[in-house]
Design brief:
single chain; 242 residues; alpha/beta; Rossmann fold; Arc Repressor Mutant, subunit A; 9 helices
């Protein structure tokens, strides 16, 4: 009997909170989608300690099943979830089935172009928080509270920071840099983009000018391009995030 009561109390502590008058209220429900196990555990603990009822997933399909059963108030989404749908794809699907759901993207990508989306493709009422902000352990909770309350002034949009890496490049230029970082040669890039090698050379040239690289050697230019991409968004490990 004691064990049953103890377990029940522990469960209630995770899914409920109290007002200042001692009134029991239901916690807000959040689904956290993050493919890195350690990061997922750390962020889940942080959300639970802030009073949220949390479910977690590592992949989009798993998250959709959890959301269908759990009916969350908000989702916190990494963008790059490995092979398969991205966090952007998952958000599109969830907003179709639950239009009122609050969405917070938590990612190392400077903006949607690095995930194959246009810079203006995301809805106005979402939050976009770069993972480097997690050094402040309250930044995630502040961002989540803001997007849940619809507090436009407090919702972070790091994807619109004019000082973000490679801000001046186009979506096509970012995509070409990603392919170079993956180790594709110009012919492979042309094949993947269904274009000519000449068009690829032109894209690379404009991208190099935008990032201030002026080395005439193609080999050196590719090294600079790959390095610029990886410094901005990390090492790409799959053919495409589209």
């Amino acid at each position: 009997m004691f064990t049953t009561v103890k377990i029940a109390s522990a469960v209630q502590a995770q899914v409920a909170r109290f007002t200042s008058r001692g009134e029991l209220v239901e916690s807000r429900r959040v689904v956290l989608v993050e493919d890195d196990n350690l990061t997922r555990l750390m962020l889940s603990d942080q959300l639970a300690n802030a009073g949220f009822s949390v479910r977690t997933a590592g992949r989009a399909a798993e998250a959709e099943a959890i959301c269908s059963d759990f009916d969350p108030d908000a989702v916190v989404l990494d963008v790059d979830l490995g092979f398969g749908p991205t966090g952007f794809d998952l958000a599109d699907s969830l907003r179709l089935s639950s239009p009122g759901i609050a969405v917070l993207f938590l990612t190392h990508m400077p903006d949607p172009r690095f995930g194959g989306r246009g810079a203006r493709d995301l809805p106005e009422n979402i939050a976009y928080l770069h993972k480097n902000k997690l050094a402040d352990n309250k930044s995630l909770i502040r961002a989540l509270e803001a997007v849940l309350r619809g507090n436009t002034a407090g919702i972070p949009r790091d994807d619109r920071d004019p000082k973000r890496p490679l801000a001046k490049l186009s979506l096509n230029q970012i995509d070409v840099l990603r392919m170079i970082a993956l180790g594709l040669d110009n012919q492979q890039i042309a094949d993947a983009r269904k274009t000519s090698i000449r068009a690829v050379y032109s894209l690379i040239g404009r991208a190099m000018l935008s990032i201030g690289a002026d080395d005439d050697s193609e080999g050196a230019a590719r090294v600079v391009a790959a390095r610029a991409y990886m410094l901005a968004a990390g090492i790409p490990f799959r053919e495409s995030t589209k």
